[in-house]
Design brief:
This protein is mainly beta. The protein has one helix and 14 strands. The chain is globular.
Length: 236
């Protein structure tokens, strides 16, 4: 399934109340996918007061990074992404704005940390709200904030015209795995939610117009079809 179609499938899934069997997601290795992005297992588990977002790849996680271009327009981004069935209201935006995902990202050309801090040239985490957009190579974009509007945003919103949050959740890389620990108290989420795993390249629009940040290339989807088959089973 192409991601553009998968994006629509996810949107439909988020409207469904049907329960899913909780489990992690395993995928077969694919030699045609670059080893640092070839997902073989994705999970989100409850660890006391934290949720641990974890992905395992075939190669050395985090070792492949985009080359700097020297400018913001057209700048590339590499990402390990966990799309979820969380609501955008759970992470501090208005409700029902799109597909909520946690992403561990690397981009050498710009900073998008909260309160003016620096985060270029290091792996760092974001919450993003994704929406389908046929103008993007991967069929999805980070939802734009229209000019002259003032939507509800989290305290750690970095001030860019996107539904993106920059909490201080440093990704941890160890061999073939990447993990991000998220305080459960930081999201107003239900104890149970669905998830998937994706590795992808994003790109800033060369014209700096909406869509400003596109999913440009999908390296691999853990489920194969972005159906969110994983499920977190926690306690309230």
């Amino acid at each position: 399934m192409k991601l553009s179609n998968a994006a629509l499938a996810v949107s439909a899934l988020l409207l469904s109340a049907a329960p899913a069997l909780g489990h992690d997601i395993k995928a077969k290795a694919n030699p045609s996918t670059s080893a640092p992005f070839d997902l073989v297992e994705t999970s989100i588990r409850v660890d006391g007061p934290h949720l641990v977002f974890r992905s395992q790849v075939r190669g050395l996680a985090g070792s492949e990074r985009p080359a700097a271009t020297g400018q913001f327009a057209g700048a590339p981004v590499y990402a390990y992404v966990w799309p979820t069935s969380l609501n955008s209201g759970d992470i501090g935006f208005a409700r029902d704005q799109g597909i909520v995902a946690l992403a561990a990202t690397f981009h050498p050309d710009f900073d998008d940390a909260a309160k003016g801090a620096k985060n270029r040239d290091i792996w760092h985490s974001h919450w993003v709200v994704l929406a389908p957009d046929a103008a993007c190579g991967g069929g999805l974009k980070v939802r734009d904030i229209p000019k002259d509007t003032k939507p509800k945003v989290p305290e750690t919103w970095p001030g860019v015209p996107l539904l993106i949050d920059s909490p201080d959740y440093p990704p941890q890389f160890k061999g073939e795995t990447v993990e991000v620990r998220v305080p459960r108290a930081a999201i107003g989420a239900a104890a149970t939610f669905k998830f998937d795993g994706v590795t992808a390249g994003l790109k800033v629009n060369a014209n700096l117009h909406a869509p400003l940040l596109c999913v440009d290339a999908v390296f691999k989807v853990a489920s194969g079809d972005l159906s969110l088959p994983g499920q977190v089973m926690g306690t309230p």
